[in-house]
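# step 3/5: fold
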Amino acid sequence: MPPSLIAGFFLGLSLIMAIGAQNAFVLRQGLRQQHVFWICFTCASSDALLITAGVLGFGSLALAVPWFELAMRLGGAAFLLWYGARSLMAAWRGGAHLDSADGQGAPVTLWPMLATVLALTWLNPHVYLDTVVLLGSISAQYPQPLVFGLGAAVSSFVFFFTLGYGASFLAPVFARPRAWQVLDVLVGLTMWAIALKLLLM
């Protein structure tokens, strides 16, 4: 196996494993077992597109357009504050749980879920820093930059599908409403913490 592929895979995996807004959303929907494939596929495909852009040399966009980074930070922070507030309100109301009969919560249509996960992905400046800028610049240090990028993209698919489908093993725990309240609080606080970090950058 090419060294560039292995290096790209493990570096990509190390960057994406940190708990963030996107990962928390995938975990939540994995627990609910709703549209898991499309949510995981959307996250991984988005990462793959951004990694490809970085490897092909488009990481200079932020330098060429001075207001781009600020606009992404403010837009991302506003969305995360709203989503965090929604999660905290859900925790306050309580009552959410997984139906022990089929392992699913109340049905939710696909398109709102995809819109949310796309916003969590593309409005997060850290995604651009990790994929376009960091992975893009590191790939240039390897003899096969595209192979390095392929390894990083594969790691994203492996991680998201493992997180989404692996979450179902926790379903018995989340049959209890209290567990959902704890998760909603953690998700909400995570969103707000990331938003605060973006605003203070």
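# step 4/5: annotate
The chain has nine helices and no strands.
# step 5/5: archive (pending)
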